[in-house]
Write a structure and sequence with these properties.
alpha+beta, six-stranded mixed sheet, five-stranded mixed sheet, 2 helices, 14% helix
């Protein structure tokens, strides 16, 4: 093996060994809409939407988008703000947002909906109550809502629609009507294990440093060897 070939191999090995240093892990944590209150006897009071998710998850630049099911249009957007989920139960945290004027469901079996949007402007969840519908604008445009198959029609003050059951993911639970439990797990909801494991992990390179590293690599590989 000549000196130039050994040099090339050494440079390639160095590049691939140090490449992970210039990368970062982007963890898509567990998060979902956990509790809703939109209707009660008399004038609606203390309407809210609660999120449940992996403890430590930052909700900076996340938002809730509210849809009118009768036309599929957005009627309200709430920015969540600088909030991180604290470990309240078994590695999960909760955050409730007060929302004035949540619609009570459209007529004719067509409900209203709520979309959860992440900090990359990606749709994470799109649920509806009192019927399913297709969004006609906004981030959920062209997508049919996931009807939770339960309604809150003039219920006593202090009740909410909430997830019940045991598990860690949204699909593990079932929507019921019960006494509200803002900022904590619901009355009949249990998380079955402490989890810091993300549902998805993606490694994304820092493109600027990666590009510079490739340029330097090409220069070193093609640089003539010094004559002895």
């Amino acid at each position: 093996m000549n000196q130039l070939s050994a040099k090339k191999i050494a440079i390639y090995l160095l590049f691939f060994i140090t490449l992970p240093i210039f990368s970062f892990a982007s963890n898509a944590s567990i998060i979902f809409i956990n509790e809703i209150h939109y209707d009660n006897n008399g004038a609606d009071q203390n309407e809210f939407v609660e999120l449940a998710g992996t403890a430590g998850l930052s909700l900076m630049d996340w938002s809730l988008v509210f849809y009118n099911g009768s036309n599929g249009q957005v009627y309200k957007t709430i920015n969540i703000g600088d909030v991180s989920l604290n470990d309240t139960e078994m590695g999960f945290g909760f955050h409730a947002l007060s929302v004035i004027g949540i619609q009570n469901g459209s007529s004719g079996g067509v409900g209203d909906g709520i979309a959860l949007i992440d900090n990359n402007n990606q749709l994470q969840q799109f649920i509806s109550y009192e019927g399913a519908f297709e969004a006609t604008n906004g981030i959920a445009q062209g997508i049919f809502s996931d009807d939770i198959n339960i309604i809150q029609s003039s219920t006593p003050i202090g009740m909410s629609l909430q997830l019940s059951g045991t598990g860690n993911n949204y699909q593990d639970f079932t929507w019921i009507l019960g006494n509200r439990s803002i900022g904590s797990s619901n009355i009949s909801q249990h998380f079955n294990q402490k989890t810091n494991t993300p549902t998805v992990q993606v490694t994304e390179p820092n493109l600027a440093i990666l590009f510079l590293s490739i340029i330097i690599l090409m220069f070193l590989v093609n640089r003539p060897a010094k004559r002895l």
